Each structure stands twice: as structure tokens, then as C-alpha cells.
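Re: the 216-residue chain
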Amino acid sequence: MTLRTSPVNHQGSISIVKADNDLVIAGYASVEMVDKQGDLITRGALRDAFDSFMKADGFRNVQLAHSNIQVGSVIPQYTDSDGRVWKSGVDDAGMFVVIQLRDDIEKAREVASEIRKGALRGFSIGGQAFKRMRKSDQQHGDYTEISKLELHEVTICEKGINPEATFRILKEDTSMTGENDALSELSNVLDRLNHRMDAMEKGEMPEGLKEHMADK
């Protein structure tokens, strides 16, 4: 079954970390929470899929809105002009990606321009789910757990049908610019992600990601 996720939400989850002719952005592309389509991808599934995705050098596709237009690629890491190291990986919140935008085709240059304007503000992922199970619990309600998948691409998109599926541009070249249960879960996720982004801005690596990278 082909998997398409809704854009992932979090205030402050994506940063532009380099911007001139080249553009590098970073943020969480997927987190372990029930999305708008009622799917929850486990961190274990994300980690296995992402590890395989990153081993396929040359096929770490970043697309525009699931369009089959490759506008960039996921890179293992990037060191910005302040010496801060941004690393792709899966930590205890979800899948964090560092993306290098292309500058050799017009469509990618258009995407970079729209990112700078704030018109493109979200991430989504595409792939194939192999293990799906319907579940229901007090925290999440009814949902489908995906415990095994193959990751095909990360996509850059506009604000989706989920009003929270947006990101805030934090830096450009280091200077530019039940319902209650669901809301509670979302608030907790946002708090964790913001703490990780704050740590990265200070040049620190979040503990979950640090342990994952140490295993490589």
C-alpha cells in the first residue's frame, strides 16, 4: 500500500540553515503521533526505513508536493557558518532531516524562492507501508499503526488541511527570517520538538539523536 502522510506540524520545526544560491533547510519530517489520516508510524518503523533510505546514495529524494519532481536531497549533515552541526536521523521524537535544495533546475529555484517567502511551510513523506494494524486506545482513539514501511521520498509542501501543519523559518544564513487528549498529545510533541530545535541552535545535539548517531 502506498503511503502518503499529511504535512507534519510544529511551530519552529524547520530552519533555513544556509541560503544564498544554495539553500539548506532542516526539521522534523515525521513524528510518532496520529496524523490527519488516522495513521501513526512508529519510531522503530521510521528508524529502519530512514536508515535504508540514507544508504541509497543518489536516491534520497526530496520532492515538491509528491509531484515526482526532485527539488533536492536529504543529506547526512551540514555545518553552518557558526560551526553548528545539523544531522539527519531519527530520535525519540521522530525523523529529523537536513535537506539540500537543488539550484540546477528552474522548478527547484522556484521552490527555494517560495520557501523564503513562507509560501511553502510543511514537510510530508511518501513510501509504502508493509505492516498496518488497526488499534484503539484511550490516548489516541481509533487509528492505524504502521510498524514497517519503505521510505521513498520527503516532500516539501504548502500548509495542508491540518491547520497546525506549518513551520516557522528560524534562520536564513544564520540571520534570516478524544479532542482534549489529541490536543494534549500535540502540545507534548511540540514541546519536545521545540526543545530539540533550541538545542541545535545552541550547537548541541539532542540526546536521542546523539545516541542514534553514536550507533552508526
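Residues 160-171, 173-186, 210-216 have pLDDT under 50 and may be disordered.
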